[in-house]
Amino acid sequence: MVEGDEGSARLDRVLAARLPDLSRSRLKTLILAGAVSLKATPVRDPAYHVASGDTITIEVPEAAPAEPKGEKIALDIVFEDDDIIVINKPKGLVVHPAAGHETGTLVNALIAHCGASLSGIGGVRRPGIVHRLDKDTTGLMVVAKNDMAHASLSAQFADHGRTGEMRRGYMAFAWGVPGRHRGTVDAPIDRHPHAREKMAVRQGGREAVTHWEILESFTGRDGKPIATLLACELETGRTHQIRVHLAHIGHPLMGDAVYGPHFKTKANQLGPESQAALAALGRQALHAYLLVLEHPRSGELLHWEAPLPEDLLLLQSALKAAL
Predict the structure, then answer these.
(1) pLDDT tens profile 47-106
(2) Domains defined for the chain, CATH in brackets
(3) Are the C-beta atoms of residues 140 and 88 closer than 8 Å to each other?
(4) Helix axes 272-281, 310-321, angle to 10 degrees
(5) Is 5 a catalytic residue?
(6) Tens digit of pLDDT for each residue in 281-320?
(7) pTM, whole model, 2 decimals?
(8) Which of 12, 54, 83, 134 is catalytic?
(9) CA 94, 96, 100 angle in degrees (round to 5)?
């Protein structure tokens, strides 16, 4: 129970004072994961100010192994050699173990798949994750298999094609139709000021640049423009960048419950087939279709493309049928 002198203090600070055996970062992770409750209601904001007399409940899960273990999970491997592995990630696959997803991740699958061929990155036998895709975003990812490859790929992703040849392209089904054929969103991104699990365009945030181009547009039941298939390329790699930027310019991704909830009723303007395809999608309509980079050892420029997955092909077909 919160005592008088703790009233109005931040939740994370109260917990840190009461639980000295848990680090501040560990407590923050538990709060964000919903493991801390007030009056049986999870509080996911570390900066929440408690009141005197509040009863705080915290559920600390059993400690997980220090390093992820290999798990036999099927992978769609596009390319592999001694230095890198490129996979076409399916929807629903989390990239890296974290609170709530300690197992069943891409990292667990890669450890099992690579086995002894996986060199000790940073002294530990694990794959080198240099970029991520959201759990429900599909498409191409490259992973390093040794320190040399990790360093090279990290440098390329940090540069994002400004001086090199690297490119990352996405197919995005967005609500509405932009007023011009192509454009660029140059808007800094940082944590949302109130919803900490979200990102937002904010002054003082980290630089974020997304280039977009219309590939195809679709109409609704009334014959008016309702949605667009965009090709997007990243010049930076911020968390949720395309999702945040498209929502910022008024064209959030179809199916994006986090950044496009106010567009949910637009589905009523779609034809029955399109409505069914969108409902079955159950995720943001985003696919990483293009990856171009220099091989970390040979310097050869490598180019991969991954076609739209079945659920997005069905959505595209249904939207076309309404034309």
Answers:
(1) 888 887 788 888 877 655 557 889 999 999 999 999 999 999 999 999 988 767 778 999
(2) 4-58 (3.10.290.10), 70-159 (3.30.2350.10), 160-323 (3.30.2350.10)
(3) yes
(4) 160
(5) no
(6) 999 999 999 999 999 999 999 999 999 999 999 999 999 9
(7) 0.79
(8) 134
(9) 70
